[in-house]
Amino acid sequence: MAKAKTAYVCSECGASFNKWQGQCGECGAWNTLSEFVVEPAAAAGRPAVRHGSWAGRVDGEAITPLWDVGQAVEQRLSTGIGELDRVLGGGLVEGSVVLVGGDPGIGKSTLLLQALALMAARVPALYVTGEESLAQVAGRAQRLGLPLDKLHALAETCVEKILANAARATPAPRLLVADSIQTLWSELLTAAPGSVSQVRESAARLVRFAKETGTSVFLVGHVTKEGGIAGPRVLEHMVDAVLYFEGESGSRFRVLRAFKNRFGAVNELGVFAMGDKGLREVPNPSAIFLSGSRTAQPGSAVMVTREGTRPLLVEVQALVDQSPLANPRRVALGLEQNRLAMLLAVLHRHGGVGVFDQDVFVNVVGGIRLQETAADLPVLLAVLSSLRDRPLAEKTVAFGEVGLSGEIRPVPNGEERLKEAATHGFRRAIVPRANAPKQGAFKGMEVIAVERLAQALEAAE
Ligand code: TYD
Ligand code: MG
């Protein structure tokens, strides 16, 4: 094969060089050069498209009314795992490329092996492993009790060989898992496997393969602690969907979150529990994100979040303690740090409660990450409860956005959230006025409507 033309491109300024060097000659940044294919070998002979050729066809491509194109409805395939289907937006779209990212050991290989084995009964599937031997994969599948007769596997890391194998296989695979993208490398590049350029180029080839053949591809990617230099971050814009697999170490619960999805809602959550038979679906996840403590504890507030398309009860815990430091600590787990700092400022200015000499720790139970502003009010109620060392009233739930001028703003889908809380036996809800029903009660639950932070703090006393 003709050697592709490659160049070393600086990720800071975009300057390109023929040889690798430690420092960019243009902008002076260190260690920012990585190798990229400038011109793939196969495309080298293609004539350039000239401007001014609007009349008529250009290289067989043509401008087409979308109406003529839009009639082809995407074909979806159930993965056989309901929670995975939900996160994908109702099943796997044919010919789509889905990146599944997460920390090492979280269960990515287990999830995809389970899904692939279930789908292999209906469509030809290929599991490509670059991390484990075939014997290890087979052993795991057997331990999980998965049907193996239809599932084909390949232990290979060279992306050209993987594609050649896939093209030769009969029947041709309609599904392919590449586990993991960090182990793959392309013959076109000299960089080491795992480097940004190799990860990008390997993914680009698999994406092209998916689009050309209509094969659905799952890419597994490890998130690295250093911010994901060779992790899946660089791939996010290349693929159709990005799912993150998250969970607390030590907890058996795992949350699969859609971070990007061209075919469905983002922030959709799928919940799983890891057991000795692999990952099991948790169809009613509300209960598991409460700490399990039966009596109300100081520093704890329960909220109804709505991640994706379903409401979820989640417990927010706070610990407020006298600080020995000149700059007291603000630590937020499962929540944005800056948001916490802002909320504490609003608490002081509009709630009259100062915590400037206190360390404040906030944690969302169950390793879940809250991204919506409905968590504002429960966070402040948990902080206040810890500061006063008094629990909130039993069976109380809260949600609402807190504005900078101390107003409590409504959040979407209020009624659905109230319904979830009532279903799980909550007796009292503190919510924004616009989210509260007029009669002050909802399915036997007392609903306290608040407009200002001060009112909410008073209601929580
Ligand atoms: P794995 O799928 O290999 O993680 P990843 O591919 O994301 O690196 O999962 C590995 C972890 O899952 C490992 O710590 C063991 C645990 N596990 C179970 O608890 N039960 C099981 O049935 C399996 C297969 C794995
Ligand atoms: Mg793995």
From TrEMBL:
GO terms for cellular component: cytosol. GO terms for molecular function: ATP binding; ATP-dependent DNA damage sensor activity; damaged DNA binding; hydrolase activity; zinc ion binding. Residues 359-461 are annotated as: Lon-protease-like. The middle region has homology to RecA with ATPase motifs including the RadA KNRFG motif, while the C-terminus is homologous to Lon protease. NCBIfam families: sms. Residues 73-223 form the RecA family profile domain. Pfam families: AAA_25, ChlI, Zn_ribbon_LapB. A motif (RadA KNRFG motif) lies at residues 260-264. ATP binds at residues 102-109. GO terms for biological process: recombinational repair. CDD domains: RadA_SMS_N. This is DNA repair protein RadA. Keywords: ATP-binding, DNA damage, DNA repair, DNA-binding, Hydrolase, Metal-binding, Nucleotide-binding, Stress response, Zinc, Zinc-finger. InterPro entries: AAA+_ATPase, DNA_repair_RadA, P-loop_NTPase, RecA_ATP-bd, Ribosomal_Su5_D2-typ_SF, Ribsml_uS5_D2-typ_fold_subgr, Rubredoxin_2. Transmembrane segments: none annotated. Belongs to the RecA family. RadA subfamily. DNA-dependent ATPase involved in processing of recombination intermediates, plays a role in repairing DNA breaks. Stimulates the branch migration of RecA-mediated strand transfer reactions, allowing the 3' invading strand to extend heteroduplex DNA faster. Binds ssDNA in the presence of ADP but not other nucleotides, has ATPase activity that is stimulated by ssDNA and various branched DNA structures, but inhibited by SSB. Does not have RecA's homology-searching function. Plays a role in repairing double-strand DNA breaks, probably involving stabilizing or processing branched DNA or blocked replication forks. The gene is radA.
